[in-house]
């Protein structure tokens, strides 16, 4: 074991970690937003839309993320859409995460008692207001623990986007071990960085959720 | 350049899918065996044994599988152990699966009422007999749905072993794509093959879940 290379590599590791954080931040925001639309559409939309969303969820959940990433990154250019690796990674991660969170958000929407909607409608709120102001906040509170787990899983999954040359943490690790020839030590250190990041992210989401939603997360 | 017809592509992908299936099975069986050991540590009476098992589970659930595979494949040779992609893939996925399966089964053990243990003890069974005859059979039957669900996740995870050079479905498809330049067709077919393997299991897990909910 030799760690003499480590001080000189800290900058690269920090840069990679920052990119990983950027990826997961974008994915969390876009994925959650998309899944709220998806879950609402699957319940209240026209039949064709409902079926399309159901199939989308099944296809994404039953195929590997790596294949979805390759499909988007290598496939889209043949349609004339050329994506920057970072954009392709964000797109693939968001689409993948949405498939899981559509199910999660949907379960939360179903768990809100129907009486809440009826009461809000009786008070004269319009259906959209009922959804945004009454049903959604309660649903989010219920699903918050599951959402937290999914976000952490997604961050770990993001290691794969190094394969389309996004310069995130795993990509930097590959570059470092090629330069230092200390592959075990490099991957060991980067694995610990990932561990610290996933623990910190969970902690952040749990305390953040408790503040913002009052959601009871263990 | 070699010409690939549509059927050549399909045939090669299906041949490669054998390895995906084999690897999934090996990792599921290996992960089940190691997972049982971790489970024993996790629910033992000794506090340190429980802590070690929790740490093991947190380590594998808190780091990317890709890093675990890299450590196996690139790391072990540096410690003087030469390792083939197949061995690294099976070992890496086995450890990964063991942590998840142990945690799933532990949730089943936790779900059992305290009285089950007490009843076993009052019948004069010792700890291992209690586990074997009373606790574990019930814990496994409660957690059948999430166990099948995890198998789906494991099958999808085999895709990552292409990155350390194991010749399974995704690695073969990369090679075919480089020769044919038809990414939509090639990766679409790969996605379809994975879907055909995973979808029935997803449906099965769902029906188990429904049955458990109505019981």
Automatic annotation (TrEMBL), chain A:
SUPFAM superfamilies: MetI-like (SSF161098)
Record-level Gene Ontology MF annotations: transmembrane transporter activity
Cellular localisation: Cell inner membrane; Cell membrane
Biological process per Gene Ontology, one example term: amino acid transport
Bilayer topology annotation: Multi-pass membrane protein
Entry's transmembrane regions: 20-41, 53-74, 86-109, 142-166, 186-205
Top-level taxon in the UniProt lineage: Bacteria
PROSITE patterns for this protein: ABC_TM1
Domain ABC transmembrane type-1: 17-205
Pfam families attached to this UniProt entry: BPD_transp_1 (PF00528)
Record keywords: Cell membrane, Membrane, Transmembrane, Transmembrane helix, Transport
Family as reported in the entry's similarity comment: Belongs to the binding-protein-dependent transport system permease family. HisMQ subfamily.
NCBIfam families reported in the protein's UniProt record: HEQRo_perm_3TM
The name this protein goes by in its record: Amino acid ABC transporter permease
Organism encoding this protein: Mesorhizobium huakuii
TrEMBL record, chain B:
Keyword DNA damage: no
CC annotations in GO: ATP-binding cassette (ABC) transporter complex
Any one Pfam family match given in the protein's UniProt record, by short name: BPD_transp_1
Record-annotated membrane-spanning stretches: 20-41, 53-74, 86-105, 148-166, 186-205
Topological category with respect to the lipid bilayer: Multi-pass membrane protein
GO biological process, any: amino acid transport
Domain of life: Bacteria
GO molecular function, one term: transmembrane transporter activity
Subcellular location: Cell inner membrane; Cell membrane
UniProt cross-references to Gene3D superfamilies, sorted A to Z: MetI-like
Assigned protein family: Belongs to the binding-protein-dependent transport system permease family. HisMQ subfamily.
Protein name: Amino acid ABC transporter permease
Species whose genome carries this gene: Mesorhizobium huakuii
